[in-house]
Amino acid sequence: MHIETNRTSKSSPHSSDRLCQVLLALSLLAADQLAKAEQAKLDKAESEHILAQFDRLKAIIRQLLFDWDIAKAVTVEEFRSPSLENVVVRIRCQITAMDPPVLVDGAQESTCDIIAMLGNQPRETAASTTRALRTSFRIMGESGVIEDVLPITDRQLIEMVAAKRLTCPRFEVMAVVVTVSEVVVQHHRSEVVSHFRLLPIDVRPLTKAIQLVGPSPGELQMVTELMTSCPAPLAYIMRFLVGFLRIQNLDALPILREALEMQILSAVSEVRRLHMALIGPPGVGKSLVTKAAKLVQPVAYEALPTRVTEAGLIGIGSGSTRKDARRAGLIPMADQGVFIVQDWHQANGVKNQRLCAVLATTMQDGMVHDSSASRCSYQAETAILIDANRKSDVERTARRGDQSGIDQLIRDVKVPLNLLTRFAFIAEIPRDIEAQIRTFGDILDSAGEQYTEPSHDLLVQARIIKVWLARLRDLHPTVRIPKDVAEHLRAATEKAINITHRRLQENADYGDFMVRLSEQAVSLVQAHARLHHRDEAVLADVDGIYPYIHRKMMFLKGVLFGADTAAADVDAGSPGRRLLMRLRLKPGFHTAASVRRLLCLTSCSEETIAADLAAMYGAANDAGAFTVG
């Protein structure tokens, strides 16, 4: 069969078959409306008007080539516009309900040219009919608007949608915006009413990060050029984040820098997503990490623990013989992206336990499961980002003498141990460093002027970086770790564990941390290699991710021993060690031994620390103490 067209775009190899099916669906729809017109005893002119509308639609649809790139992206809320009538659009949505497929009478495809045959009135083709599968479904946009689409009769498309919607929460529908005349009977009166409707042409599940971002060909070209010209993507993206978020003096707070870098690595992590828990009092920069996550991840959803329910996280569903309805929750909607929970400490009692169970399943299995009779299950390869304040930061509390450090932490931030062990990065930003960082992004810009919205150029750059990171995930779905890199990673992991001494390894509460640390380190190495456009990890990838596992182990050491270790330097090496000393040492007298103990610089000798103190503050006194301040 030959289809005439004036398009020059490349067509799908299945365009002809799909076109036949769409035209068949349109003819069946026309037959339904004519039957209603006859039952309502409309006059001939009104019936001919209905036929003329469907004939015009057929003429337009015959010219389609089903190219996703040429379809105009709109939302469920936007397609009802005269300017979009007879235009091919693509809409991102959930498929919330689907009618069971039924067999109906349709045209016999094998008798003659189906295009020519469907150009006639449907009742004239009744002599040669066959049984065709037919169904319709309902879609929901981002803001919750629900729309019924016109029926489809493509068996392959019906089977794909029916199967994929059981696990995939997001779809993209390509459709033609049409005005369909319907016969409406109200108060014993019949009239013809025209409505804007969507006639589906194709449907595809959105399962990849690059599909969620939906880049244009021009954006992909810019990203390709950027990947070849940028040898240090992590530094490049960090400079952008610092500028976009108007962060000043970031070097004064290495924890915040590492948290921002972790969000970049999380954006390119695959399968085993990288999860983060950030603890600290209000005003130390936790919200900046949340903003960065939204900038670099392909999709981001956010919730407050006091306002979200278990069903809101997972989704709801109901099944019957007439219609299978379901709606995905926030976590599956954030598949391939990030789900953010701010102020986790506000979750109370039973709700906290339920939410923790959902998050633990998501982090462990990459799926969420509804416990109701509908048994909804969705793919949820979602990175989890939670931030919390210690209870002692928001109300007056005292540490109980019978509680261990980990018990006090769980009581403070309300994150149970089985959930805490699944975070690849855990850090606490202490209150006394607030003065070291000037992050007035919400109020003032870097020049001290009133905050204004980001410029167009910054927004374009943000879009390019999001496409860039999604593209890297698409190009490098798997990253191989050679034997020498694996040995180097094992040594680095053991080094990070050893900073906590034997007491941590012997403590039963921390066993899961040790077990999961190796798996998280592998995911970090793979993400670091993927970020640098590599299919195979190198030794530099291990060195690049060591600060993050070190930070996590230092946090655990602080919890176990009660030491103030949150700002400990990564490798205790100059010049980072000297910067740390200047930030953390309060005015007074300090010896090399006291500095080593206070800052937990376990990988440095007292002689090395003494040399640094002498370079910064002059010679020690007779008691071996250095004067700071």
Supply database-style keywords.
single chain, 629 residues, alpha/beta, OB fold (Dihydrolipoamide Acetyltransferase, E2P), Rossmann fold, 3 domains, eight-stranded mixed beta sheet, five-stranded parallel beta sheet, 43% helix, elongated
What does this structure look like?
This protein is an alpha/beta fold. It has three domains: 15-206, Nucleic acid-binding proteins (OB fold (Dihydrolipoamide Acetyltransferase, E2P)); 217-475, Rossmann fold; 576-628. Strands 1, 2, 5, 6, 7, 8, 11 and 12 form an eight-stranded mixed β-sheet that branches. Strands 10-13-16-9-17 form a five-stranded parallel β-sheet. Helix 1 (15-39) packs antiparallel against helix 2 (44-61), helix 8 (254-267) runs parallel beside helix 9 and helix 19 (511-531) packs antiparallel against helix 20 (539-561). The longest helix is centred in the N-terminal third of the chain and has 25 residues, at 15-39. The termini are far apart.
User: Per CATH, which architecture of the largest domain?
Assistant: 3-Layer(aba) Sandwich
Beta content? 15-25%
Report the strand count. 19
The CATH class label of the largest domain is Alpha Beta
Mean pLDDT: 76
Q: Strand count, sense and closure of the main sheet?
A: 8 strands, mixed
Residue windows where pLDDT falls under 50 for at least 5 positions: 1-14, 107-130, 394-402, 433-448, 563-575
How many domain modules?
3
Which secondary-structure class do the elements indicate? alpha/beta
What's the total helix number?
Answer: 23
CATH topology of the largest domain: Rossmann fold
What is the first-to-last residue Cα distance?
87 Å
From the spread of the alpha carbons, the general shape counts as elongated
Helix content: 40-55%
